[in-house]
Amino acid sequence: MSIQAMIDEWYPVGLFSQLDRAGHRTALMGEPIDVACDADGKARVTGGDDRVLPVRVRYGHVWSSLGAPKKELFPIPEADQPGRRFVDVGVVRVRCSPLRAVENFLDIAHFPFVHTDILGAEPHTEVQNYKVEIREEEDEVWATQVKFYQPQAAKSASGGITTEYMYRVPAPTCSVLYKTCPPRPSEWDVITLFVQPLAEDLCDVWPWMALFDDETAMTDLIHFQQTIFLQDRSILENQIPRLLPLDPGMEIPTRADLTSIAYRRWLKRHNYTYGAQLVAQ
User: Fold this and answer.
1) What digits encode the pLDDT tens for the residues 153-207?
2) Which residues form the Vanillate O-demethylase oxygenase-like C-terminal catalytic domain (predicted)?
3) Given phi > 0 = left and psi -120 to 50 = alpha, else beta, which region is 230?
């Protein structure tokens, strides 16, 4: 599988807060890399033959690339908004395609069945009509006007509410979710999924959050989000095929899958095929 189209993208490779001089060994798209702090306390990423790779530190994470990114890391304006709490959730390793991990994050219909009594519950299983578009100027996939009943939409929620969502895909292995903020209905909570492709069928998932929640303990915020994603992991690791099918005829979508359809179409348009399956086998 060619990785050329995705090689110039930015990918998360670690939490900046956990870096030290000794560093740690990980991988990016099959290539071993080392992530560490240099003598000045700045993040440093090296690939094979001690090749120094480009680095950015943003949203609590170190980002790098095997190539030469043609654009800056995508913006999340809420990351600079005063009063928000920024939550580094940690990392979860998943035996699945990095593209599968992102697509699962975009799926609303599984809430009542996988995240029962948290993000969904029967009989509230219907996905209402919502809007999906590929925004040409930003070159991003967006889903808006998404509404779903949730028994506990966030750690800060005190009871069941109908939550409104917006989904945004600004990069092939990253997604940003904006959802109703229970303490501040005029604002959005921001929950992101930053996915590090270790191989085509293996990834590290780094969730990160920017919330308005002054009361919940940080450990509780982290535990809540980890609980959600660990529930997802068991589903992701049992999906067949392991790679994400891009041929429309390989899996049968439903009306609830509009975001997934747009995401797959966007991936195919850009030849973002590392972690994808192009034809039926």
Assistant:
1) 445 445 566 778 899 999 999 999 998 887 888 899 999 999 999 999 999 999 9
2) 94-269
3) alpha
Q: In the chain, what are the helix, strand and coil shares in percent, each to the nearest 5?
A: 20, 35, 40
| Contact of 98 with 230, CB cutoff 8 Å | no
Place of tokens 């690339």: 65
- How far is residue 228 from each of residues 115, 118, 167, 207, 221, measured CA to CA in Å? 7, 9, 17, 11, 11
- Residues 88, 17: one domain? no
Q: List, for residues 219-229, the tens digit of each pLDDT value.
A: 988 888 888 77
Residue 8 belongs to a domain with what CATH number?
Answer: 2.20.25.680
48 and 106 within one domain: no
Cβ(180)–Cβ(188) below 8 Å: yes
Q: What tokens does 25 get? A: 């060994």
Tell me how far apart the alpha carbons of residues 214 and 211 are, in angstroms, rounded to a whole number.
9
Same domain (yes/no): 109, 147: yes
The whole-angstrom distance between residue 264's C-alpha and the CA centroid of its chain comes to: 15
